[in-house]
Structures are given as C-alpha cells and as structure tokens.
Amino acid sequence: MIIDDTVSMLDVAGIGFGPSNLALAIALDARAPGRRSCFFEKQPEFRWHGGMLLPGSRMQVSFLKDLVTLHDPTSRFTFVNYLHARGRLVDFINQKTFFPSRIEFNDYLRWAAAQFDDRASYGTEVVAVEPVTTNGRLTAFAIRIADAAGRERVVRARSAVVAMGGRPRIPEPFRPLKREPRLFHSSGYLRHLDRIRLADEAGGRVAVIGGGQSAAEIFSDIRSRFPRVKVDLILRAAALKPADDSPFVNEIFNPGFTDLIFSQAPAQRRAVIDEFRGTNYSVVDLDLIQSIYEDLYQQKVTGEDRLRIRAGQRITGVSAGEGGIAVVTRDTMSGVPAAETYQAVILATGYDRDLPRDLVGALDPHVTGWEPDRLYRVPMADPSGPVLHLQGACEDSHGLSDTLLSVVVIRAQEIATALAAHLDRMDAAAAPARRPALAGAAG
C-alpha cells in the first residue's frame, strides 16, 4: 500500500505484519468489511523468522493451527487450500505428517500475505504512536512512520494493533559488544553464514549460546553445513531438556485456556506459567536431542573433538580482540572457571516480547494502565475514543500461548469483532444528531 496525502484517517493501523496481524487482516475482512486498514512492516517483504529457515527444520505445531482453520475451516486462507493452490495437496498427504517444514509454512504465510498487498506497507518502520487531541480529548492516534531512508511522515488512525513480534534478547555480558560483527543473534543466523564460513576455512571454533530449540538447531546445522569448524554449545542448564508436548500438557495452548489464565489473580497466573515453562522455553524436540547425542557418541568412537556441549556454565566475562571473542565461564556445580576464544558467537537467547514503551510512551496521559483487558485492549481514560490492542505482548496476563501460533486465529477474531463494534460506536457518536421531524398539527 502506498501511503500518500490522500490517506486522511485509517480505521485500523497495524504495527507489524507477521502472522498475528496477518490473521487479523483476514478476520477484519469478514468482521469489518469496508474499513480502511493498513499494516506497517519494517521488513522489505513478508518473511517469518527468515534467519532461521534452516533446511530440514520442521514446525512444532500442527498445520491445522494456521491463520484461520480453528475459526473457519472452509476459508480460502487455510493451509490445506494453500497446498491445493500450489498443487501439492496429495503429495503432502503422502508424507503422513501434521508438521510441515518451516520453509513451507513461511511460504504459506507469504502466499496469504500477498493477498493483502493493497493493505501492507513494507519497508516502513513505526517510530512512535502519539496522541491527537481535540479540546484535550483523545480523538485519534498519530502513527509516525519512517521509510528505509529515514524519511518520516504521520498517518492518523482511529485504532491501532501492535504486533511487532519479539526483540532479540542480548544477555548482559554481551551488551558491550552489540556492534561487534562476530557476535550476532540467532534471528540473523542465515544472514551471517559468511562469519562461520571464515571460521570453517581456518579450522576455528564458534560458540552457540543457549539451551533451547534454536540453539540446538543451529548447533546441528553448523555441524552438517561446515565440516571443519569446531562448535561449542554453551548452556547454563545441566543438560539439554526435551520439550513436553504430550496431549494433556498441550491443552494449555488451547484457545479456551486463555480464559482460565486471565481469570486468575496475578500470582496464580505466574505460578501456572512457571509450571508449564517446559513446554516452550529452554527445551528441545526429543528427536533433535537424540540426533545430537548420536553425533557426540560417534565423535567418541572416532576420537574427534569437533563438537562439544558445555552444559552447566555461567558466563562471567566477554571481550573482543584481534584473535576473536573471548568467553569466560564458571561451572555452576564445581565453580571451576574456563576461557575460550571463538571466531564467531551466536546468541540463541530468545526474545523480549513486552510492549516497547518508547513506542507508545506519548500515550501515557491517555491510558489508565498498560495491562490489557481480556480482549487485549489497553485501558484508555476515555473508553469511547481511539482503542489500542496488543498481540504477542500479553503472556503475563493471557498465558504461554500468547507468543505462539496456537491462539493466533481466535485472538484475531476476538480483536476484529471488538474493533468492528468499537468503530461502529465511534461512527454513531460522531454522526450529527438527527432530530425527528415535527408532526403536523391535527385539525
């Protein structure tokens, strides 16, 4: 979508255009047809976890948890219809799996997103969401956007939905080196393969920091992609732990579980989330753990020392020099220190998913708090004015599934329904009062 001076007021401004706001775009088509919306995305094109589209990597959730099936299995946006459109439906069935490759699911999302090109503005970063007031009353949001060249302009909107995804988490010891090119986050892994290739050519060593799925996948990918490089997987836990994806435990990702979590007091919510963290954080698919263990065992047979799992390590110091990045660790059990220099360090350390307050801080005088309600709305001082919804930043209030694909469909439907009703009310309140015509006198 080209934003020009003819765009006076949007009904819905989407901040970010990943799976969450893509599902919302689909829902708005059904719930609020004719409403003017635009989704602003910083990336130059739609791409889902582009830095981690590794060969052989598979989805960890069923294809039935796509953009729309849980709400409307007959929709043209289902994964099954995508397969049909691509001419691969029968071939996919023959695989006998519920879990497509991550590369294929990204292609499905891109296929769906392409159908909203008239409502997507790629290469556009939302810099701030600011208030527009009339006589002290909030009447709209000023969405300050910037293109790739840094040129800014403002678009106004009567509602906004923030779905920016996670921001790479950089552990404290590594923050002083954030501009160091030999250090990068797993989100950009495939874009930095040249760094690992240099280490491979020199027979050097690289480190992967983290104990979750991404860390294990990168460790395994480096092993197979670069035959000479030495790889350390450094994690604080005592061992790689398998994800619990058993059926009863997986029920915490059911859309209905959101109501249960939200109805609890904050302390109880946190207790439930902590109890089930092993379903999503710092855990690895069991098949991948077994594959890595087999690689390490075969290494013992051959006498190689190329792959190492350095478990139970706390990182105490990091520095960069001409020879590489020095990482100092201390064993969490024995207290024994160690130091190693690496030609590249990959941080598979997860994401921060809280709402970026610098993005919305100007709205502080117009909100009564930042904890969203059940429909993911930020409580506004004037409930009849512009409304702000959050997607993917509500784990503390709505549960572990908030950052995952599991509730994307139902959440988008809930938000779209709430937006449609709210915009209708705003329209009704803004319409000129119509006085009934005076009846003629009887006689």
Attribute tags:
FAD/NAD(P)-binding domain, alpha/beta, flavoprotein, 443 residues, five-stranded parallel β-sheet, single chain, 22% strand, disordered C terminus
Describe this structure in words.
This protein has 443 residues and is an alpha/beta fold. The protein folds into two domains: 12-166 and 353-428, 3-Layer(bba) Sandwich (FAD/NAD(P)-binding domain), CATH 3.50.50.60; 169-243 and 280-347, FAD/NAD(P)-binding domain (3-Layer(bba) Sandwich). It contains 13 helices and 18 strands. The protein has a five-stranded parallel sheet with strand order 3-2-1-7-18, with helices on one face. A five-stranded parallel sheet has the order 9-16-10-11-12. A three-stranded antiparallel sheet has the order 4-5-6. The longest helix is centred in the C-terminal third of the chain and has 23 residues, at 408-430. The termini are far apart. Residues 437-443 have low confidence and may be disordered. Pathway: Siderophore biosynthesis. It comes from Tistrella mobilis (strain KA081020-065).
Indicate the CATH topology of the largest domain: FAD/NAD(P)-binding domain
Content of β-strand: 15-25%
**Low-pLDDT residue intervals, each spanning 5 or more residues:** 437-443
Question: Helicity level, as a percent range?
Answer: 25-40%
Give a count of the beta strands, DSSP E runs of length 2 or more.
18
> What's the end-to-end separation, in Å?
62 Å
Domain module tally: 2
Structural class: alpha/beta
Spatial strand order of the main sheet: 3-2-1-7-18
CATH-scheme architecture of the largest domain: 3-Layer(bba) Sandwich
Total helical elements: 13
CATH superfamily of the largest domain: FAD/NAD(P)-binding domain
Write down the Rg.
25 Å
Assembly state (oligomeric): single chain
Biggest sheet, in brief? Answer: 5 strands, parallel
